[in-house]
Amino acid sequence: MRQTAASGKASFAMSMGPSRRSPWHLEDSKGASRRAFADLTSMRRVNLSHNSFSSGLPMELMSSGSIIVLDISFNRLNGLLPEVPYLFTTERPLQILNVSSNQFSSEFPSATWKVMKNLITLNASNNSFTGHMPSSLCIGSPSLALLDLCHNQLSGNIPNTLGNCSKLKVLKAGNNHLSGILPVEIFDATSLEYLSFPNNGLQGELDGAHMVKLSNLATLDLGGNQISGNIPVNIDHFKRLEELHLGSNNMSGELPSSLGNCTNLKTIDLKINNFSGDLGKVNFSALQNLRSLDLRRNNLSGIIPESIYSCSNLTALRLSANHFHGEISPRIGNLKHLPFLSLIRNSFTNITKALNVLKSCRNISTLLIGKTS
User: Fold this and answer.
1) What's the pLDDT score for residue 320?
2) Cα distance between residue 102 and residue 128, in whole Å
3) CATH classification of 1-170, choosing from 3.80.10.10, 1.10.3300.10, 3.90.25.10, 3.30.200.20?
4) Which residues are paired to 146 by β-bridges?
5) Distance CA 221, CA 316 (A)
6) What CATH number does the domain located at 204-373 have?
7) What angle do CA 143, 148, 153 make, to 5 degrees?
8) Is the predicted pLDDT of residue 162 greater than 70, yes or no?
9) pLDDT higher than threshold 90 for residue 281
10) Torsion over CA of 355, 361, 362 and 368, rounded to 10 degrees?
C-alpha cells in the first residue's frame, strides 16, 4: 500500500499484482475483510486484478465513499455483484469499475447505477451475468463513456434509454442473448465511436435516416444476428467508419455504390447474407486503407471488379460461394501484401491461366481457387 497526494488531501492506492497462490477470499465468514475495507476511508484507487480472488465482492468496495477506481478483473469472483442500496442518499464517487473476466453468474444489477453519478467506465464483460441491460444506466450515470457487457448471458431488448448517453463513446454487448430491434433512440447517443452487438438475436432493418446521427462512428459490428433489409444507401455519411461487420445476418439487396465513398474503411465483413447484384457497381479504388474484404456466401454476380485490385493494402480477400465468372485479371498482381485469397465455388474460367497470373502475388500463403460443391 502506498500513499499519494490527491487534491491536497491524503489518499491511498492499493495495488496487488498477479499471484499463483490458492484462491483468496475478499469476504470471510467473520466479516473481517468487510471491516478492513470499511475502515479504509481514504482509499481512492484499488487494483486487485489478475489474482486468484474467489467468493463474492464486498459491498464496502462498491459503495465506498472514497474509491474512484476499482479494478477486480481477471479473478475468480462469483455470486452476486452487490446492489448498492437506495439508503445511500449521496452519490458515490466511483468513476471506473472493472469486474470483467470473473465468474459472476447472478442477475446484473439495475438499481446500483442510480447512485453512480460519476461513473465513466463500466466493464463487466466475460462473466455469466443474467437478466436485462439496465435501463437506468445513463440516467443515473450521465458521464458514462464506456459500457462493455459482452460475453455474458443477458437477454431481452436493448433499452431505448441508452439514447440518453450523451457522452457514451464505446458500447459493447456482443455474445449475449439480446433480442428485438436496434432501437432508433440509440442513435441519439451521438458521441458513439464503437457500436457492437454481434452474436445476439437482433432483428429488424437498419434505419439509415437515424443512423447518420452517429457521425463519429468508427466501428459498427452487428454480425451474427437476424438483421434483414439492405445496407443504407447513405452509409457514406459515416466519414470515420473503419470497421463494418454485418456478416451472418439475413440482409439482402445490392451493395450500395456509396460504400466506395467510405474511404477510411479497413474491414468490410458482409459474409453469409443474401446480397445480390453486380459487385462492379461499387468502386473500390478509393478504399486505400482496406485490409480485409469478406463477401463469401452471398449471391453476388458479374466479374471481379477491376477497382478491387487498387486496394493495394489488402491482406485477406474472400469472395467464395457467389456467382462470379470470367477470368482473373492480371491486375491482381497489384495486391502485393495479400497472403489470403479465397475464390472457390464460383464460375471462373481458365484456372490454369489464373494460376499463372497469381504467381505475381508472392505473399500469398493460402490460396483457395476452383469450383467445389
Assistant:
1) 96
2) 8
3) 3.80.10.10
4) 121, 170
5) 18
6) 3.80.10.10
7) 135
8) yes
9) yes
10) -50
